[in-house]
Write a structure and sequence with these properties.
PfkB_Carbo_kinase; nine-stranded mixed sheet; transferase; globular; four-stranded mixed sheet; Sugar kinase; 2-dehydro-3-deoxygluconokinase activity; kinase; alpha/beta
């Protein structure tokens, strides 16, 4: 098993608002953001790879060059000549973000339509990370194919992490979203939900309910984020406890708060830290991210 973190999903063109009202172009996406933050935290003897499909057009090649330039392995990119990459635009109001998407021809929707490529991409990875957005962009049959491949990787020794990042508009309906989330959770060792989303989807009134659901699905660790509230960390080995973040006085942009948290948590576990240390480091990283604009904040690592 190589020292390798693989994140799977969709990287998109990002249009992010500037303080002056213009937009800057970048590349981002929930699981790519996780890879980007993990790469900055992990030592050089760890490989961080991003698994997705892109086109062969100019913007796809620019994305591939950007990913490689950030130190992330691009050998796991699959190119499809009849597709391109998706685009999203962030709108901000009082630090909270909303998104507009253009992803009809996104190559990432084909992530699970080549089982041989998928199996080769997953093979031998120490840690594999995906999200509910990764599943939402796939068809129901592809979701099952994708999760079956992850289940096999888990059986072969990979640690599987799943962020229940919800984008209701990507799913066919609420029932499909619930089924997809539980399918993803069923193949994961680590589940990373956000309590506000769990309340909306399942009606949870406590983080204990959230923990119980994913523990029953087979997770050995559940880490429930709750905005500025305490993070609830549960593990089969050590039970449940909470870690409270320090208050953040000036929230600029909450984009990638959960993605950076996942990157921080997984990177610190990979480096051999215990789960409580990993959770505290992830909280601190996310706090820094929400005090700057955009999904990727290089200034935190200057």
């Amino acid at each position: 098993m190589s020292q390798s973190l693989l994140c799977l999903g969709e990287c998109m063109v990002e249009l992010s608002p500037t303080a002056g009202g213009d937009y800057t172009r970048g590349f981002a996406g929930d699981t790519f953001n996780t890879a980007w933050y993990a790469r900055r935290l992990l030592p050089a003897d760890w490989t961080v790879a991003y698994g997705t499909c892109i086109g062969t057009d100019a913007i796809s090649e620019e994305m591939a060059a950007f990913i490689a330039g950030e130190g992330i392995d691009t050998a796991t990119l699959r190119r499809l000549p009849d597709r391109t990459v998706g685009l999203y635009m962030i709108s901000l109001r009082n630090g909270e973000r909303s998104f507009s998407y253009w992803r009809g021809q996104s190559a990432a929707r084909c992530l699970a339509d080549d089982p041989d490529w998928l199996a080769a991409t997953l093979h031998g990875r120490s840690i594999i990370h995906f999200s509910a957005i990764t599943l939402a962009i796939l068809s129901p049959d592809q979701r099952r194919t994708f999760c079956a491949a992850l289940s096999l990787a888990r059986a072969n020794g990979s640690l599987i992490a799943f962020d229940t990042n919800l984008r209701p508009r990507l799913w066919e309906n609420a029932d499909a979203m619930r089924a997809g989330v539980m399918l993803g959770a069923s193949v994961a060792d680590i589940v990373l939900p956000s309590f506000d989303e769990e309340t909306g989807l399942w009606g949870d009134t406590s983080t204990a309910q959230t923990v119980e659901r994913y523990a029953k699905a087979g997770a050995t660790r559940v880490v429930v984020k709750d905005g500025g509230g305490p993070v609830t960390l549960w593990s089969a080995a050590n039970g449940s406890r909470q870690h409270a973040p320090s208050p953040v006085k000036h929230i600029v942009d909450t984009t990638a708060a959960g993605d950076s948290f996942a990157g921080g948590f997984l990177a610190h576990l990979a480096m051999g830290h215990d789960e409580d240390t990993a959770a505290k480091a992830a909280i601190a990283l996310a706090a820094g991210v929400i005090q700057a604009r955009g999904a990727l904040v290089p200034g935190l690592f200057a």
